[in-house]
Design goal:
The protein has 290 residues and is α+β, with helices and mostly antiparallel strands. Helices cover 20% and strands 31% of the residues. It has one domain: Aminohydrolase, N-terminal nucleophile (Ntn) domain (Glutamine Phosphoribosylpyrophosphate, subunit 1, domain 1, 4-Layer Sandwich), CATH 3.60.20. The protein has helices at residues 16-24, 59-66, 129-144, 153-168, 279-286, and strands at residues 3-13, 36-42, 45-51, 71-78, 94-98, 101-108, 174-178, 182-186, 192-197, 202-205, 211-213, 223-228, 233-234, 239-240, 246-250, 253-257. It has a seven-stranded antiparallel β-sheet with strand order 3-2-4-1-12-9-14, with helices on one face. Strands 5-6-7-8-15-16 form a six-stranded antiparallel β-sheet, covered by helices on one side. A hairpin with a 5-residue loop joins strand 10 and strand 11. Residues 263-277 have a biased composition (Pro residues). Keywords: Glutamine amidotransferase, Hydrolase. Pfam families: GATase_4.
Length: 290
């Protein structure tokens, strides 16, 4: 099946380091060679890059690996096709607009005999079960929330947990969903997450001979969460989701879980003390790396 990666932060950061390890699984260290994609929520919009080739040796992926696009919310996907041909229209993440927000979605799994009734508000462009599920979820959210203002993550979380259970009855439904403010992550079978904050350590990729001293690229007030189908780094405390669990992440912290956590805002971190502008801090300003 496919693999997924997401980042949620309290300040803008680049995902070059993590994406380098993740994209290697797209044909080099893994068999997920049927396309890839990545979406960056930014202050004034959402950048989405997709390609129906291998992520490990794609020129477009090489650009993403090297260019520090800074964002507080990122979703990435490498595909191993189970339903639908290897085409651009079937590459994740998928993007739609709802209540003036860019919603992006990617899925790992296989839904059997899944033919939801779509009323026309959202229709798939490609032929994957994943895009059908995304369209149906947005359709149902639109029916549940009829106000002109977007609902909060506290309102969305229990509704999405119920929709996830209904779709997961058709098969494996691991997914990532974000509007740029909150990151919703659901696990049917396999999904892990990692919290990074001060004091930062050194991270070492599993799929590449590469390490990053996170102390050199982050300040004391930075906080971030990474979510991946399989852990990307060694020697860091990745935690597994429970099967059937939906988690919500906001500002680089877990704020809700369908299995254990009530709704609560992320706790503020102690602000960083001002530092003189050294070469290291200048690099950090140019693009926090995770």
């Amino acid at each position: 099946m496919c693999q997924m990666l997401a980042m949620n932060c309290n300040s803008t950061a680049s995902i070059n380091f993590s994406f380098t390890g993740f994209s290697a699984r797209g044909g080099q260290t893994g068999e997920h060679a049927d396309g890839w994609g990545i979406a960056f929520h930014e202050r004034t919009g959402c950048r989405v890059f997709i390609d129906d080739g291998r992520a490990s040796d794609s020129a477009l992926a090489d650009f993403v690996r090297s260019y520090p696009i800074k964002s507080k919310s990122v979703l990435a996907h490498i595909r191993k096709a189970t339903q639908g041909a290897v085409t651009l229209s079937n590459c994740h993440p998928f993007q739609r607009e709802w209540l003036g927000q860019h919603w992006v979605f990617c899925h790992n799994g296989d839904l059997k005999n899944y033919h939801p009734r779509l009323r026309g508000n959202y229709l798939p462009v490609g032929t994957t079960d994943s895009e059908k599920a995304f369209c149906w979820m947005l359709q149902e959210l639109r029916s549940a929330f009829k106000d002109a203002c977007p609902p909060s993550w506290k309102q969305l979380a229990p509704v999405l947990a119920d929709l996830s259970r209904r779709i997961a009855s058709h098969g494996t439904f691991n997914f990532l969903l974000s509007n740029g403010e909150a990151m919703f992550a659901h696990c049917s079978t396999q999904l892990s997450w990692l919290s990074r904050q001060h004091p930062f350590q050194t991270a070492r990729l599993i799929d590449c001979d590469m390490t990053l001293d996170l102390r050199q690229t982050n300040s004391e007030s930075d906080r971030m969460v990474l979510i991946a189908t399989e852990p990307l780094t060694a020697d860091e405390p990745w935690a597994k989701f429970e099967p059937g669990e939906l988690k919500v992440f906001v500002e680089g912290a877990q704020v809700w879980s369908s299995t254990s956590l009530p709704a609560r805002p992320p706790r503020p971190l102690r602000p960083a003390r001002p530092k003189p502008p050294t070469a290291t801090s200048i690099r950090a300003v140019q693009g926090v790396a995770v």
